[in-house]
Amino acid sequence: MMENKVFLSFTFYSTILILKMYVVAIVTGQVRLRKKAFANPEDALRNGGLQFCREDPDVERCRRAHRNDMENIFPFLFLGAIYSLLDPSPTVARIHFLIFCVGRIIHTIAYLLRLQAPTRSLAYSVAQLPCFSMALQILMATTPYW
Amino acid sequence: MMENKVFLSFTFYSTILILKMYVVAIVTGQVRLRKKAFANPEDALRNGGLQFCREDPDVERCRRAHRNDMENIFPFLFLGAIYSLLDPSPTVARIHFLIFCVGRIIHTIAYLLRLQAPTRSLAYSVAQLPCFSMALQILMATTPYW
Amino acid sequence: MMENKVFLSFTFYSTILILKMYVVAIVTGQVRLRKKAFANPEDALRNGGLQFCREDPDVERCRRAHRNDMENIFPFLFLGAIYSLLDPSPTVARIHFLIFCVGRIIHTIAYLLRLQAPTRSLAYSVAQLPCFSMALQILMATTPYW
Q: Which of B26, B77, B92, B118 has the most CB atoms around it within 10 Å of its CB?
């Protein structure tokens, strides 16, 4: 596997996206501290008092971005790995990974910076295209083994 | 790996379930549009006005179904892959994958169509059985290497 | 892969953590029953009446613990697998997996038992260290293939 250049390319883009998700987590924590909005009483107590155990729209926005990442990037980690093992054209495969990676980075930027609709949903939809393509190719290769 | 028939069977069922999750995401978006209930002000603004940035019980139902999928299907993607490499009986392995796949599809149907309890929790519990079985078999095979 | 001792060690710790997540799911269900707080009307109806379709702070706490697990343990399943294939020192690799595993178990205990801050965030941060380390090592190995 570690001599399969498509797989190595896939792991590069996947790791970039996981680090991107970690950044969203860190941003969420920073917004919680700045807006003083904590999910747990024990955190609020340590940061000024129980009144800061509350919701905040900016925190919720970060959490929605993070959840959307989980809904979409985690399936990519699976589909991309299996697709890489199907011996696809390296150029075509790299286009799949690149579109997904760029689409998801734009999705996060559009979410956190509240860019005008439909920037975010467009980025989401474009990023889904390589996922559907990979899923269909995997099904075509594995249907005989159901 | 791509000559291991158990692994190919596993990838088939996994990809079906990932596509099933994508369907839940698409349904969520459709319900948001139909009920006019958006999570973000920028989406509401594009769809009639800020008053449509609101929660809706049908949207929340879709989101709970999706989240439950993440909690259960993602671990399966890991457990099933490792289990496939343990050289299990192909028939027994396929039964594991099939029970999980059918259980999770019924879970989604029961969730979105509000089927009477305990249909949904029963489907959830049945789908967990092959997961526990695979997890235990992996632990038995790998405990010497902890 | 199943002769790679680092990979086998990784699968052991990963499976332990997936079982740990299943325990959080089971605890959530038990708290829902004990506190009579259900997310769905059909579940509430079966357990005493529609008035029990309601939120509960203890249930929400379990759900936050579970979600934080998804945000962090699922990426580990990917990073750890790829890192294992990079031929790392078995001792160093095991330290990575052990720190993550112990950190995440302490995180769950601190969450569910409401341990005083910053126990939980400290466990979270310590568990992220091996993840960042593995992500950087993967990037260093795969950047030529982007």
A: B77
Nearest-CA residue of chain A relative to B69? A71
Q: Which residue of chain A has the CA closest to B25?
A: A71
The count of CB pairs under 8 A between chains A and C is: 70
Identify the closest residue of chain B to A146 by CA–CA distance: B9
Looking at the partner chain, which of B25, B39, B77 has a beta carbon nearest the beta carbon of A64?
B39
**Residues of A whose CB is below 8 A from B42:** 114-117, 120
Mapped onto helix, strand or coil, the DSSP state of residue C49 is coil
Question: Which residues of C are less than 8 Å from B4 in CB distance?
Answer: none
Among residues A23, A104, A27, the alpha carbon closest in space to that of A61 is found at A27
% residues pLDDT > 90 (chain C): 95
Residue-wise pLDDT for C117-132, tens only, equals 899 999 999 999 999 9
Q: Tell me the ipTM for this assembly.
A: 0.96
Residue B113: alpha-carbon gap to chain centroid: 16
pLDDT beneath 70: ranges in chain C:
none
Cis amide leading into A88 (omega within 30): no
Phi, psi torsion values for C39, nearest 5 degrees: -85, -25
CA–CA distance, A27 with A92 (Å, rounded to integer): 34
CA distance A69 to A124: 10
Q: Give the distance from residue A74's alpha carbon to the nearest chain C alpha carbon, in angstroms.
A: 8
**Residue recorded with tokens 């293939």:** C145
Mean pLDDT (chain C) is 97
Does residue C74 belong to the interface with chain B, where contact is any CB pair within 8 Å? yes
Distance, CA of A12 to CA of C78 (rounded, Å): 12
SS3 A53: strand
Segment A60-74 shows an average pLDDT of 98
pLDDT tens per residue, range A98-142: 999 999 999 999 999 999 989 999 999 999 999 999 999 999 999
Q: Which residues pair with A53 in a beta bridge?
A: A38
CA distance A103 to A109: 10
- Contact between chains at A43 and C121 (C-beta distance less than 8 A): yes
Q: Is C78 exposed, middle or buried (0-12, 13-18, 19+ CB in 10 A)?
A: buried
Q: How far is C135 from chain A (nearest CA, A)?
A: 6
